[in-house]
Amino acid sequence: MKLLIDLQCLQTSSRYRGIGHYVNSLVKALLTINKARPQPHNITLLFNGYHPELIDELRQQWGPLLEGVHIRIFHAPPDTAESGCPNQGIIRVGESLRDEFIARLEPDFVLIGSLFEGMTDNYVCEISRARQYAVGVIGYDLIPLISPEQYLGDPLIHEWYYHKLKSLHCADVIFAISESARKEFEDHLQQPDGSVITISTACDDSYYPLDGTSEDCSHTLAELGITRRYILYSGAADERKNLNALLQAFSQLDGALKNDLGLVLVGKFSEADRAGLSRFAGNHGIPPEHIIYTGFIAQKTLNVLYNRCSVFVFPSRHEGFGLPVLEAMTCGAPVLCANTTSLPEVMGLEAAMFGPDDIPRLASLITRVVTEPEFSKQLREHGLKQSKKFCWRKTAEKLLVHAEQIVSEYRPAGKADKPDRISHLARLCSIWQMEDHRLRQIANCLAANDLALEYRLPEHQRHWRIEGPFDSSYSLALLNREIARGLTAIGQTVSLHSTEGPGDFAPSEEFLADNPDVAQMVSRSQQNMLQPEITSRNLYPPRVHDMASDTRLLHLYAWEETGFPQEWVGNFNQHLTGLTCLSEHVQKVLIDNGVCLPMAVSGCGVDHWDRVEPQAYPLVAPGFRFLHVSSCFPRKGIDAMLQAWGIAFSRHQDVTLVIKTFDNPHNNVDQLLAEHQSANPDYPRVIVIKEDLPDGQLKSLYQQCHALIAPSKAEGFGLPLAEAMLSGLPVITTGWSGQMDFCDESTAWLVRFEFEPADTHFNLSDSLWANPGVEDLASQLQVVFNASESEREHKSIMAASRLREHFTWEQVAMRLANQTESIIKRRQHENLKRPLNIGWVSTFNQRCGLATYSQHLIEQNAEDKITVFAPYTSEPETETDNSPVVKRCWQLDDNDTLEDLARQLLAENLDAVVIQMNYYFYDYQALTHLIATLKNRGLVVTLTLHSTSDPEPRKAVANLQTALELADRVIVHTVKDINCLADIGIVSNAVLIPHGVARIEAGPVNWPFAGRPCIASYGFALPHKGLEELVDVFAQLRLEYPELVLMLLNSEHQEPVSGEFIESLHQRITTLGLEESVYAEHRFLPDAQSIGLLQQATVIAMPYQNTGESSSGAVKMAIASGRPVLVTPLPVFADVAPAVTMLKGTSAEALKEGLVQALAGKGLPDSGGVTRWRESRAYPVIAKRTFNMVRSLWINRQTGE
């Protein structure tokens, strides 16, 4: 039987009361007897994500009992407590999320620990009739229903309670905790016969008789301030508990006896409860010093109080069972209790009972117990004997027997045609008019629940061969050996083979001797007895060409910067079956760079750190201690950290930065620190530790510090951050890259950032990382320093709980195994290399830079079927043998609704749509609706933004935010553009792919000025291109260079202003008398002819004066000619800086100076570097990456469905 136990009640205030004690003890009994069964049931414990720290407490408490038990945590929106809920729809959505989560676990029986929860706590539970599993509820009592005037006077509480009763009617069985409770449920709810079953109650084994001479008892009593004999009560303080009767009876005791006794009241009483009781006691002549309120205390302490009390009194008017009575009897205390509801069946002795309003009898019984040793002995002996009738094993066995019977007879309701979960939640959100921030919370809950449900055992037991290093402290070695152990733990057969990027090597014999489980896996590999079904590697560099198995993987792959070697991309695509990543960030980088394989995020296990025992490390660092642990490579953000440290603090403050690092060629922390200390005499205290520390001492170092600083520019996962969190440290880190899988505003202090070119030894073109903002980092340092200990602790607890919930090695192994099963199935049933059907929305065969850009990319793709959806045009179509099909179906303005475009796209059975974006091509609302329509059909959609500089407020890129969020990828060409997107929250789907540079063979040209020096210009003839300035400077240079020629290769744009500008420009040329020295061509020439003409130039000048463009296609064409190119220092040319010469300004003087230098062959970039730059951006390279990315999005979109 698949038994799921809903334990949310152990996360509410009920955990402090009898309900919490009952459920805790029952679960321990169920787990104990289940482990002893020949065929144990499959048990899952269900919690919510509201208080993860409480789950960790229970894990520690239950310890070995949890072996083989699944713990599942579902997530629901915050603010579901009925008393403070701003919108009832939040509760209904939470209930729906819980139902869907349970349904996907496919249990046979669901046991609800306590249904009547959620009035003042975050708790969601609704029992639906439309389900495929049986439901049982622990039934405690119906006290509010029987005494509504006392409990249900508040309309909100009344409505909530009756809603719960309605839900209770849908349960298949109520497990009553006493015969009295069973009768209540049958009498007041008219339950069907046999649907209420008494399973009784028992006492936790934490309660037992103590040795009469225990010193611990005296110490406990002294700590609580108990100095006299005492009457004990344990429980709540609400009116039905009848504590006033106990106070009245105490006040009627004999004077001497009363002076000799005290009252000890145990329970989580409110301030109002205490005040009311004290006032009542004072009115009855009981001095304050005779009453001790202990508050909530540990079971060990309560056991002492039971054992040492003179008498335990329980005067309650109404109980479901009365567990404190049984607990006291189990400890050998003399017990007196009221004779109502369930208490007689617990007490079992009429002589020890009294009517709840019979104060004289209660006073008489107390007197007898305290003054008559024989009567006290009688009660003690009876209690010990009576308590043995109640046994948790019997209770648990009875529950399981009935649950098994119900499951065997259960006939679920037929599966109704229910809407999918998204549609159902959308309907609920619409009905309850959810606000945007609530919708985001619900989406986050869906994602978290999907992640939690990945933890299931794989369908098949397969033989894995894990290849890579595993015998050292090296990070890859840690990953390999721990994933091998994790796979073994979930039933997979694993062999280990020692190898690295360059080749095989023998593992350390000493390591194998210390790790016999690893040695066994190595032996299995050497014996070659089993042919592995799956070979999976993690090694560096990533050697993939020689893997023998049918299924070939890289597992737990890590990468940091946004660029990735294209040689490796080709190898991966050729030789691998699939790949799993450490983080979402890594997977995005691989997709963006064109790795066309099924991929998934397995995550990284961190629970190995919990097994590390701290070893003493002497740290002498006064004050509040910030810690940084890294190699201090440039990627680790050391420069920003040291700069921020000097801004945030001074040497006069009681604060220290501890840097744990090691010497390496890239580590310049000493130099940077010396520079800061020299420049700032008040620079705050820094300690640098470079010695090698074993894990135990490193853990000790973590524990001696107060916060971790990790301002990394890029991480694959961020294991040191996780180690710090598990060590109890709050973390400050950059808000980007791999650590974001477990770092957010609830678990860390995030630092704002700006993208910049990555500076790594790979020297990858157009690769980025995130530079943390120094001012914001300094601010976060101060925030953490000034935060209260409870604030820092709260985030630390949340962080550690999230890591332990989702990032254990067993969970990672389950994800890896299940993801691999999915990869194997897809390979068997799908052709992932088939030609894709791609729709391309752009201008085409027109005088337009985007049309040229599109043509260059499309002509490189001979594998896929590409259909161009272009705007209407009056220009004639020009077709070649390689031209794609062009369908003209939209207007080139921003008034078109794009409905015809949408219809034609949807009619083509496309896999993906690529949209080229110009501000004035589309109406933003229409474009957003188009993308939403395409996404609803399951198509991949990419959108290329060729500029992010807003031409006017109406056309601000921020107004396009919804469309950008919907796209699978938003492609931009410059660092400036990607930072503009980040400013409006577009980060997770943004990618920088540089503008392409054409490889064009020069065509034959008729050049009338052969042999003469020539300055050329290229692009559309528009006013901002600086052509007037160029003509003026040319006129000046002619005085020095009489043979100089000016080539104006500037075609007329379709905008009317272009023709007017050309006419004005030629008037200027005529006025200056330059007609004989100027070659002007304003037709739109074929690229080959343009290149042929440009190659006649000595230098090409592009002196733009101002532009909103982010990137220039014309300058790429100029660079493609191979001639030196001069540009003005504008952002539009930032992406070509390595391949051009930047002028000192936009003035005529700066232009003249630059041209004089260039004509003399001076000040030009290295030709070899320009060639390498040009080749890295050649259109075949850019096209291959772009179309590979589209294919990868298509492959991995299907994986995620």
Write the layout of secondary structure elements.
Blueprint: E1 2-6, H1 18-36, E2 42-48, H2 52-62, E3 70-74, H3 88-105, E4 109-112, E5 134-139, H4 143-146, H5 148-151, H6 155-168, E6 173-176, H7 179-189, E7 196-198, H8 215-223, E8 229-234, H9 243-251, H10 255-260, E9 261-266, H11 271-283, E10 291-295, H12 299-308, E11 311-314, H13 323-330, E12 335-338, H14 343-347, E13 353-354, H15 359-371, H16 373-387, H17 392-409, H18 421-431, H19 436-452, E14 463-467, H20 475-489, E15 493-497, E16 499-500, E17 503-504, H21 509-514, H22 516-527, E18 534-537, E19 551-557, H23 566-575, E20 578-581, H24 584-592, E21 599-601, E22 624-629, H25 638-648, E23 655-660, H26 669-679, E24 685-689, H27 695-704, E25 707-710, H28 719-726, E26 731-734, E27 749-751, E28 753-757, E29 768-772, H29 774-786, H30 789-806, H31 809-829, E30 837-841, H32 849-858, E31 865-871, E32 885-890, H33 899-907, E33 912-917, H34 924-936, E34 940-945, H35 961-966, E35 969-972, H36 975-983, E36 990-992, E37 1014-1020, H37 1027-1040, E38 1045-1051, H38 1056-1071, E39 1078-1081, H39 1087-1094, E40 1099-1102, H40 1113-1120, ...
Helix pairs in contact: 1-17, 2-30, 3-18, 3-19, 8-12, 9-15, 13-16, 15-16, 20-31, 25-26, 25-29, 33-34, 37-41
